[in-house]
Amino acid sequence: MRDYRNANEAVALAVRLARVEVVAAYPITPQTAIVEEIAGQIARGELDAEYIRVESEHSALAACYGAAVAGARVFTATSSQGLAYMYEMLHYASGSRVPVVMAVVNRGLAAPWTIWTDHQDSVSCRDTGWIQLYVETAQEALDTALQAYRIAEHGEVLTPVMVCLDGFVLSHTEEVVEIPRQEEVDSFLPPYRPAYYVDPERPAVFAPGMGPDLYPSYKRSQQLAMEKAREVIKAVDEEFGALFGRRYGGLAEPYRCEGAKAVLVTLGSVTSTAREVVDRLRQQGHAVGLLRLRALRPFPAQEIREILGGAEVVAVLDRNCSFGLEGAVCTEVKAALYGLARQPQVLGFIRGLGGQDISQADIEEIFQHALSFSPGRR
Amino acid sequence: MRDYRNANEAVALAVRLARVEVVAAYPITPQTAIVEEIAGQIARGELDAEYIRVESEHSALAACYGAAVAGARVFTATSSQGLAYMYEMLHYASGSRVPVVMAVVNRGLAAPWTIWTDHQDSVSCRDTGWIQLYVETAQEALDTALQAYRIAEHGEVLTPVMVCLDGFVLSHTEEVVEIPRQEEVDSFLPPYRPAYYVDPERPAVFAPGMGPDLYPSYKRSQQLAMEKAREVIKAVDEEFGALFGRRYGGLAEPYRCEGAKAVLVTLGSVTSTAREVVDRLRQQGHAVGLLRLRALRPFPAQEIREILGGAEVVAVLDRNCSFGLEGAVCTEVKAALYGLARQPQVLGFIRGLGGQDISQADIEEIFQHALSFSPGRR
Amino acid sequence: MLQIRWHGRGGQGVVAAARLLGRAAAVYEGRYALSFPSFGTERRGAPVKAFTRLGDRPIRDRSQIYTPDCVVVFDVTLLEGGDTWQGLRHGGIFLLNAPFEPHSLPLQGVTFYRVDVTALAREVLGQPLVNTAMVGVLAGITGWVSGEAVKGAIFDLFPARLAEKNWLAAEKAYLLGQELREKGRRA
Amino acid sequence: MLQIRWHGRGGQGVVAAARLLGRAAAVYEGRYALSFPSFGTERRGAPVKAFTRLGDRPIRDRSQIYTPDCVVVFDVTLLEGGDTWQGLRHGGIFLLNAPFEPHSLPLQGVTFYRVDVTALAREVLGQPLVNTAMVGVLAGITGWVSGEAVKGAIFDLFPARLAEKNWLAAEKAYLLGQELREKGRRA
Amino acid sequence: MIPVLPTPHLSSRTGAWRMLRPVLEAEKCNGCLVCWLFCPEGSIRRENGSVSIDLDYCKGCGICARECPRRALRMVEEASFMGEGGGKLA
Amino acid sequence: MIPVLPTPHLSSRTGAWRMLRPVLEAEKCNGCLVCWLFCPEGSIRRENGSVSIDLDYCKGCGICARECPRRALRMVEEASFMGEGGGKLA
Amino acid sequence: MRIEELREEEFVCGSFACAGCGAILAVRLALKVLGPETVVVTTPSCLLGVTTFYPQLAFKVPCVNVPFPATAAAVSGLVAGLRRKGRENVRVLGIAGDGGTVDIGLQALSGALERGDRFIFLCYDNEAYMNTGGQRSGSTPLGASTATTPVGRGAKGEDRPKKDMLRIVAAHNIPYAASASIGYPADYIRKLEKAVKAGGPAYIQVLTPCPPGWGYRSDLTVHLARLAVQAGQWALAEYEEGAWRVKEVSNPRPVREYWALQKRFAHLLQESGGEG
Amino acid sequence: MRIEELREEEFVCGSFACAGCGAILAVRLALKVLGPETVVVTTPSCLLGVTTFYPQLAFKVPCVNVPFPATAAAVSGLVAGLRRKGRENVRVLGIAGDGGTVDIGLQALSGALERGDRFIFLCYDNEAYMNTGGQRSGSTPLGASTATTPVGRGAKGEDRPKKDMLRIVAAHNIPYAASASIGYPADYIRKLEKAVKAGGPAYIQVLTPCPPGWGYRSDLTVHLARLAVQAGQWALAEYEEGAWRVKEVSNPRPVREYWALQKRFAHLLQESGGEG
Ligand SMILES: Cc1ncc(C[n+]2csc(CCOP(=O)(O)OP(=O)(O)O)c2C)c(N)n1
Ligand SMILES: Cc1ncc(C[n+]2csc(CCOP(=O)(O)OP(=O)(O)O)c2C)c(N)n1
Ligand code: SF4
Ligand code: SF4
Ligand code: SF4
Ligand code: SF4
Ligand code: SF4
Ligand code: SF4
Ligand SMILES: [Mg+2]
Ligand SMILES: [Mg+2]
């Protein structure tokens, strides 16, 4: 059904379509509408789920954890300070291998206080063991939330997933969204059948303590699960595409990178605006392209090497800063390209913090700057 | 005074020598002894400080924050889950530019539960805007805690500092420690004189909200402060060396890297063991060296390029994993070396998670593996 | 692509208006739209903005709107803020809800419309709730979306009873707008 | 470099013993030492281990001790665990506190000493607290640190009154150790 | 740049938000200060025996008028204070 | 590898920690079960009219002996159960 | 302190609060009692949003903003820091909304109360998370419809009674705890004065109606704050030296009268046909 | 339930608790009452350390370990999840030490109590953070010496009274809340049975002496748990349907008798010359 929705609503619709069984979440701008919409769905009888009205985000994820080990499909959503406050639980959920899906509506972190978007909140959580997918549109938010359950619950992945969407720019921006039908979603996403759940017939300890003899192997298995997730993310996106006609490029999506001298690397909603710029510059005869990282974790190092290996300059647009180093994506892109015989120049651009707008002109400037480094131009 | 102490005690001694005014901390293994020792110092009248017995780590850092904006010199210490639980406050303290010094006694994160050392806890906080210094010995723990106040409180730095020390391997291991005299420390470390503090005569908002127009410039200034910190860390280490005769290499300390074909990059206590191995291998005629990163933030990219640029193979020993990518230090070392004309091969080794012991044999194996990649050997 | 900026006060429903217009075009005319608020918390009474982009192809530019084609002002008192006309592009439209003609707006090269929508809304809805009617007027004046499309969107977004009343107001405003079409004052 | 492993039970003070020996060497003989516990939480009664490294140069190896030069066992019941002798290097020393000779320890190529330190401690301290005395015996048998150094360390680590009593026990044990020196059973 | 900013710092007069304006009928007022006490914005000034209203930050909430025991305050549409053709707000 | 492990799973018999052993003087015991109730380890077995002690996990805390209203239990040095020259613990 | 004795000076002015905001009134009055030698510690909530977002900074006293779960912990730190710096004369006033007090800020508050430092904690209770648009909090009254407890098929608004925070706080045995209402300013001011004089932590929870959140016309704020008390929906209680004192209501009103003025309770009246 | 009626089966056995641990006894008895259809939710504390650290896993019922601040929140989730899965028959027993209850776990507990779900929360109170070696908690009694409230020049051990957690919990108006002692097993068991039958959240705080933490010989555990009650240092209270009931002590003992057996109070006796 063709509808007109913002990404917050799109995510709430996905939660309904995914037949989530337990939701626990805490309000925070600009995520709140997701939670409100879910509460509304339940009140209106559209969604048959338990909504746990927790008193904080730490508890939100803890409650999801409890419900998940009981065998339920769970959902939560947060943003910024809320994500930061549940941080202990992030490591815990991934280490415990519970397939939580969480929408992170990206917003900058205090201090100073901001309610506007940047990626500092989720990017800073890159080491927590969660899969992170960044979406570009409300449609992708909906579709990715559905895909996220398939990925998270995959028997060899069993790793929680963050669906990251830019605050306001996506969360509060309505646009055309195609709503899948319930039957279609049901056929794409079967009910969650956990291998391990709390069962007095088979008593088990969930998340026991472990000595140095065992602990490392569990951490290794988390890393292997992430490796597996690479495949699964791609396969699920393919399958989704076959069913619904919409694909998002799996881990990383190139746009007009063929023969591009300068390629811009982006995450999230700014990609849309950048496409516009790429088209215009291409029209003007500039060999520019775009690589959107859909997954930050698992990090698409292989794809980056393949797609960017041929470029002369790579410009990385970071909506975050790893203070004392540089934008996090920039570092990781360089590392991914490390060791290639022909190495593109990699330039980092930190933009759009705390809701700073990124206009077409800003992006064009980045491209111009990048092109000026291209040997052809020098 | 020559003494025999473990790193926890050494840190507590530093707190006393630094004349810290307010301490707020929460117990957690293997950090607890620091807090206990400070409580003891106060009870015995050796330290004239307020000890706030908080009910959690989030509150520990919040209380330090409150005391710092009142103008007091503050200290806290934690580990693992405790660091994770105060995570929201980490961003807050750095964004607010309060010069907190915190000892992080490194320990792995749950789940599964461990009480043993690895660097996942602090390395995962690399994006929080804190300066991070990793120490190798109990002596260095003491000395670095003292240096940390000079760094954090520097007018152009004003950034909180984590002094990271390995759980048990340092925290619970006694060794020879030279305790500086109070007068010497006083001359090295003057009282804290904040430019901004809570004062009804000059009312101000601490950590206000800001729109997209202003917010980015404050984040930029955090990044600039980190740049400044590079200099300051080196200068303070030098000055400390001149006064006390002990230097730690500033941001990064090479060991026998001259002409080294294979260099191992380490953080923390394993460096000691690795020195032993380097000496033996050198004796056996292998051109191996060691680069210890003392600072993870600010990241010593420049030093890495200078020191490792000449190597053929660089082996990075990570006691952490950024799941879905690789060891965090490995990524950052590659990125630092990116674009060098002659690029060493960089190999990542994740070892020592959850207290897994790293023996001389383990390190030798890493070196052997690295050397096998050295072109001279192939 | 068309870019519209809406000015109102917290509580007046500017965000809903921006959305309504977008929905009308996107769902009922098979076209594309983006609508978004001014990205802040809006307190009741405080001046707020919202935005709509309309287009025939999917709209990819997600940056802010700096040079709108049209500015819609919900309330004459907002003119005091002095920023309603900012960036309005040459040849654009300035639509003001006011009971009287304000003097000396520093508008140049744009078409100016004034309508007393508050009176209309009071009449139809019994309250000075102008947002649906403002969309109606704009649609009428510009023809950017059809009255039918506006109706469809209103019935989607309001519960039935409210929708009917609101469509009544919007339709009236739409017709008024059609009358006004081409009667704007060039400034 | 010398490596010593201490076996005891939570509450018996093995960790303190490991430290005491290290401190004696490091502070009172200008040498170097590392001492550390078995890196876990020790519950009272549970078998625990601790370690000391002694050397003439700064000790850099911070990895675990797998092949100690000496094993010290605080309590005969610990032998049941079956791991006290693990890794003890050829030519090493096995020192056991026991009121009687245990039979059939699978020791090979090491020197075995048994002392009834509990009895000694009971006598001097009025309690079966053996840890300082165990350090004394070890020092006496091996000469790895002097009695004076042990005394210094004891007075550093215990409050005066306790220190005196403990040094009494340790000194007695030290002298006993000196007598036993070279009288160990080769196994 | 340390995020510590001197306060107060007011960039906009929130009186501009007002849609209703409190108007005092001075003769009814007995200076009881009830309006002064209850004004959320502190926009009412005490004057000997009476009060006056500072419109810079008065948002026109109407509490003063509602709570005045002597009904000495009336809320009047703000637009009515704009001359035909618009005009200054306060 | 999911960190979910079947429980119970006991790798060591904590009876090995014991330094004192509870010894029952059966004739004094009236089977009141006070010891059974209070044993933290659940190491006392109910037997018709009396009790027996399972030494596998008895840590020798002495609570049973202290709480037995009939003083039917005595705590005895564990070492005394090792024959000269050592021997099995339990 | 009589009205006329209250300071003329305003310590908060020009905020971005909605017209008729009860919360800002409560803070205005509190600062009038506490005076200029006060530092405010506050946290995300309407108050922070409307008083300390640049470029509109509305306080005339220092204000320390801290994360949502942290108010009382930062208060503890500030008290210790000021004491250490010999500036005990500066009063520390922690302020949080109901959400920041009874939910996410409860633990830090409990810790600070337990430590027994001298400070005042003011909870302005608008009975929901208003800064984020009106979601239920632990302090939302039974039956109120909010954005997360909407009314619908079988859903009748908030289904749990209001958390009795005052009793929870009093259970910490602090010298002074009270509830107040901006509808009873003399009572509120008296309680603030007592809080100032308390030898340790003092807690005041003040009812502050919220026009958009509760759904009523802005001029009714004070009226509702009074009506809540008269209709038995808010007690004016005091806990001092281990004893409770509750103000008798001289002119009780039916609760329906209170409900009838607020959208959040509209469904309760509809249910029973709008009668009685 | 009389002693003989208690299940023979042990649901926790072989733990690494210290000899004479009161906590493990409290848990053992609780599980005997609750039975095999129970899931334990627990958190870092001695209990987690001694029962669920591989390779020694001592529970015979499922056990879900969660982070320290999260016990009651995970309990809420588990209750919801089990209900959603049609397995309401499984009883959910949250267990935390005093630190995990009255300090870092307080907020989550308050939230869970407020939500009104059916579960039992057992706080075993050994009056300090024992797993980390005996630091003070909010539940440490006045005067006790701990690792963070040591005795020294001018420092006399814990200087704040014990947090009255039972009153705090009762202020949440839950169906059942009680304090118990392992020294009074019949009373404790009866309370557990009531908790099982409560229609909503039930809370029991049970005093569990700790030999190394309190400094006494392991055989005194039950004796001290009894003496605490007899010496007026621990009340056996019950809060049910809004009313309090406190067990009268038939044979009161002087508090010094209680102190005298424990190292943590040794300095209190020395002060007054060891008399009386
Ligand atoms: C950790 C965290 N979670 C959520 C938020 C989002 N948040 C900001 S204000 C607020 C509601 C505040 O409610 P209350 O304390 O009652 O104050 P009010 O807004 O009602 O004045 C919320 C949920 C946040 N800032 N931090
Ligand atoms: C967030 C966090 N902070 C601190 C710790 C460390 N810690 C583990 S157990 C414990 C003490 C537990 O005390 P209590 O709850 O009273 O249980 P007990 O150990 O006394 O049985 C502490 C402080 C932790 N695991 N997580
Ligand atoms: S209308 Fe409201 S803001 Fe204006 S003076 Fe009256 S009470 Fe104050
Ligand atoms: S409340 Fe009315 S009578 Fe009293 S001072 Fe104000 S205007 Fe005058
Ligand atoms: S307590 Fe004593 S009498 Fe009772 S059953 Fe046990 S041993 Fe027998
Ligand atoms: S000594 Fe302790 S553990 Fe052993 S049976 Fe008696 S009570 Fe149980
Ligand atoms: S929403 Fe309510 S509490 Fe917030 S500023 Fe507006 S009136 Fe005040
Ligand atoms: S320290 Fe205390 S609570 Fe912990 S296991 Fe030992 S006796 Fe039990
Ligand atoms: Mg509120
Ligand atoms: Mg405890």
Kindly describe this structure:
The complex is a heterooctamer, with two copies of chain A (378 residues), two copies of chain C (187 residues), two copies of chain E (90 residues) and two copies of chain G (276 residues). Chain A has two domains: 243 residues, Thiamin diphosphate (ThDP)-binding fold, Pyr/PP domains (Rossmann fold); 120 residues, 3-Layer(aba) Sandwich (Rossmann fold), CATH 3.40.50. Chain A is built from 13 helices and 15 strands. In chain A, the strands form three sheets. A seven-stranded mixed β-sheet of chain A has the order 3-2-4-5-7-6-13, with helices on both faces. Chain A has a five-stranded mixed β-sheet with strand order 10-12-11-14-15, sandwiched between helices. Chain A has a two-stranded antiparallel sheet with strand order 1-8. Chain A is globular, with a radius of gyration of 20 Å. Chain C starts with a strand and ends with a strand. Chain C is built from five helices and seven strands, in the order E-H-E-E-E-E-E-H-H-H-H-E. Chain C is an alpha/beta fold and 187 residues long. Helix content of chain C is 36%, strand content 21%. In chain C, helix 1 packs across helix 3 and helix 1 packs across helix 4. Chain E has a domain of 55 residues: Alpha-Beta Plaits (2-Layer Sandwich). Chain E is globular. Chain E is built from two helices and six strands; from the N terminus they run βββαββαβ. Helix content of chain G is 34%, strand content 18%. Chain G is an alpha/beta fold and 276 residues long. In chain G, helix 1 crosses helix 7 and helix 3 packs parallel to helix 5. Chain G has a single domain, classed as Thiamin diphosphate (ThDP)-binding fold, Pyr/PP domains (Rossmann fold), CATH 3.40.50.970. The chains are: A alpha/beta (378), C alpha/beta (187), E alpha+beta (90), G alpha/beta (276). At the A-B interface, helix 4, helix 5, helix 9, helix 12 and strand 15 of A face helix 4, helix 5, helix 9, helix 12 and strand 15 of B. Strand 9 of chain B pairs antiparallel with strand 1 of chain E. Bound molecules: thiamine diphosphate (2 copies), iron/sulfur cluster (6 copies) and magnesium ion (2 copies). One thiamine diphosphate sits at the interface of chains H and B.
Secondary structure: elements and pairs:
The complex is a heterooctamer, with two copies of chain A (378 residues), two copies of chain C (187 residues), two copies of chain E (90 residues) and two copies of chain G (276 residues).
Chain A: E1 2-5, H1 7-17, E2 22-24, H2 32-43, E3 50-52, H3 57-69, E4 74-78, H4 80-85, H5 87-96, E5 101-106, H6 120-123, E6 131-134, H7 138-153, E7 161-166, E8 174-178, H8 182-188, E9 204-206, H9 215-244, E10 252-255, E11 262-266, H10 270-283, E12 288-293, E13 295-297, H11 301-308, E14 313-318, H12 328-337, E15 345-350, H13 360-373
Parallel strand pairs in A: 2-3, 2-4, 4-5, 5-7, 6-7, 11-12, 11-14, 14-15
Antiparallel strand pairs in A: 1-8, 6-13, 10-12
Helix pairs in contact in A: 1-2, 1-7, 3-5, 7-9, 10-13, 11-12
Chain E: E1 4-6, E2 9-10, E3 20-24, H1 34-38, E4 44-47, E5 50-53, H2 63-67, E6 73-77
Antiparallel strand pairs in E: 3-6, 4-5
Chain G: H1 22-34, E1 38-42, H2 46-51, E2 52-53, E3 56-57, E4 63-65, H3 71-84, E5 91-97, H4 98-103, H5 106-115, E6 120-125, E7 151-152, E8 155-156, H6 165-170, E9 176-181, H7 185-197, E10 202-207, H8 211-215, H9 221-230, E11 237-240, E12 243-246, H10 255-260, H11 266-271
Parallel strand pairs in G: 1-4, 1-5, 5-6, 6-10, 9-10
Antiparallel strand pairs in G: 2-3, 7-8, 9-11, 11-12
